Amino acid sequence: MKMKKLFISLTISLITFIANGQTKPWLHVDGNMVKNTFGNLVTLRGVSIIAPEYATSNPYNPKTPAEYISWLADSTRGWYSRILRIPVCGLNTTPAIAYNFIDPLVQQAISLGLYVIIDFHNVTNYGSGGTSQATVLNFWKYFAPKYADSSNILFEVYNEPVNPADWTQWKDFIQPVVNAIRTVAPKNIILMGSPQWSTYTNYAISNPISGDNIVYVFHIYPNQGAPTSTLLDSKFGNAANSIPVMITEFGWNQNAGYSDGITYGTTSNWGIPFRKYLDAHPTISWVNWVFDNYWMPSIFDQNWNLMGTENQGEFIKSWLAEKNKLVTRVATVRSNASLLSVYAIEGKISVSMVGLIRVEIYSTTGKLLVSVNTKGNKIELNSSLDKGIYIVRAYDEDGLAITERMLIKN
Question: Which one has a higher pLDDT value, 189 or 369?
């Protein structure tokens, strides 16, 4: 007899979406949060690779960018990245060439079920004497329409503008870029850097960039100080109480061969307290720098051994696994007076909850597959759903909706 077993991994107010093989639900900003199409808070956690155009110049056992990407999302190797950041450096002055170079990698990442950040990766002054506004505009006018219909893609408009160290001048510089993107790509999340290596996030609280679905970026390394709650609150935590914030670069290593004056730190004194803070602030998504064996602070040594002890590699891998790995178990969840339980066997799905009045089942791309009204505490549905990941939303008579993700395995 062929039987279907259903396992559900449950949270009430927070869902971190897992890879489903291709397109992901659209993300949007709601207050200080990023949410999915089901209205649930989404916390994205992953890694950045080096700029793909420089991968072959690595003098230590170089790997192709495609190898990086297949590795960082490979659960059989213990990796559970859910978002990938792809920097575009020297090629960003020739957008068409850059696009042809990185789009195969973007498509590979999408096929693996990843969200992808396309990062205009300049670390320069902006405006007069630095990167011109025209350069940034030309890049995004080319790239934004290419990915306007892709729910997997986020745009990081400028990695680390340095000077002028003035929010008003930065806003005047970057607002036309945002406007140009929104003209052709109204839905993609825009990740917004700031002067002084993307550390001026606090200025956006009272004087935000105009536009929808903008998330403000912060970059932090050990040179900024010990990651106490007081320090991190002052850097970006207080801002994250009122505007959406994402850490798109952080990292450390104790080994001097894989760190420098900016990134030198230890897991005990920097990594652990930093993780504790971010885990306590689930509205803040993060991307670690960097999934490499050469650029600093790398997570591998030159021979592609994952570095541990007081270096970041093993710690980041474990953190991603603990937060992003799908927990496969039969479970129930209690919310107020309602208890939701779901199970499937022999082609039927049973949903039980006190005061149940409606059940909906969605694909992970947000497509409604099943919608049934009912009365009572339980309903059995005939199911022809294939193995895969689905979203179950159950409503009770008091208006409570509990949304859960489920994995059906044949």
Answer: 189
